[in-house]
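Sequence only, no structure available. Ideas?
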Amino acid sequence: MLILQNISYKHSNTDLLFDNIGFTINNQEKIALIGNNGVGKSTLLKIIASELQPSNGELKVNSEPYYIPQIFGQYNHLTIGEALRVNDKLNALTAILEGNVTEENLTVLNDDWTIEERCYTALKYWQLSDLDLTQKIETLSGGQKTKVFLAGISIHEPELVLLDEPSNHLDHAARELLYNFIDSTNSSLIIVSHDRKLLNLLNTVYELSKRGISIYGGNYNFYAEQKEIEKTALNQDLHSKEKALRKAREKERETIERQQKLDARGKKKQEKSGVARIMMNTLRNNAENSSSKLKSVHVEKIDGISKELRELRSALPDVDQMKFGFDNSGLHKGKILFKANAINYSYKERLLWKKDLNIEIISGERIVLKGNNGSGKTTLIKIILEKLEPKSGTVYSAQNKSVYIDQDYSLINNELKVYDQAQQFNSSGLEEHEIKMRLNRFLFHREYWDKPCSALSGGEKMRLMLCCLTINNGSPDIIILDEPTNNLDIQNIEILSAAINEYKGTLIVVSHDESFLEEINIEKTIQL
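Reply:
I predicted one. Tokens follow.
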């Protein structure tokens, strides 16, 4: 069991990330922890894993959690055995079996006689039988690193498992293994993920936001339905308040106009009846005071409604009006952009593909490149972009304008500030205020303009990349997206989907996110 009571966390710069977080996780519960980028999901997992200390509050946990982070670079200098914290036990077991039965070796092994068997069984389940426990983590691919740490769950058999974006870098086959594991495990799970197929395997959703934790008793689809109901109710409240504000302003105007007419009429009567000047001044002051009081009453009411309206608008999710806005007139639907006949590529004289590839890409197609890790997806992309030449076969490539967006958004220069980065794409001579308008549309308001790109989250870099493409203006013939949803929260995935669906050119996507592929209307698959 896990109990969090009044947990708060402040960054070193004293910015409050979250405040008074509290919840309880019971045995065998499976929890999805979701929320927008930057709300503190990964930080909360690190606090539960005791890798960070909260600023305030108390945490109680029955046993040590098993934590798999999103990034593994800190383990690169270790062997697989060291990273999985099984090295000492394995060495002790080997020594005992060789006859070195010392008190120290027996203490280290702690009666865990099946440790070696569990290691190799776990690695085999995750399709890592070819790896050796003495191999360095730095020699592994991103997908292999993730699978190594997933294997550690079966080895250590923890009661509580914390997973931060576990399906990132996993190919389709590995994702299926992950889904099966989540479905069958008896461990309690807290999972941070944007993978909606995975989230639908979990029975409760905890949403972390600036307002704290909101709990939804169902899987992700149930959560999405409830959020839609909340959004509809919020929009109804919003329209109701907007209507009330209009009526209040109309009432204010009508009341003031009526009072002014009464005052003018009274003044004329007083002038005709020859009222003394001093009395006229007194009456005028009284009329002005009366008008002022009326206006004050209405202003107070209008201010109250306006404040409620601002609060309602701040509760709305970020709008997804972030569209490319390309001029698509230069695109010729049906034109052959790329054609490959019997091509192959080789590394160290070894052919990459078992069968030569025959591929045709037509303008306007929406294509997904599929294949396990190491199947040559990135190599094929480089051939399409004319950055590599095949070792055999022939290639035709029509003159085209292509944009390649990798999962690290390498087109973004981390040394530049946000405004300067946008200016780098200003090929059409937009004025400064026009660039800032585009940045605002993609949620980069004034406080972001001087912020270094290196400080942006994955979702923010994605939005800046989309913004830069709109500033560049001319519609590219081909947009290639390489695992675009890795490191994005669900909200930013929806923003990306909306922008892509407005694009009319050729789209080539490398992704294992089936929900995302459905949303962007993929119509053709190239399987490697």
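The longest strand covers residues 16-25.
Hope that gets you unstuck.
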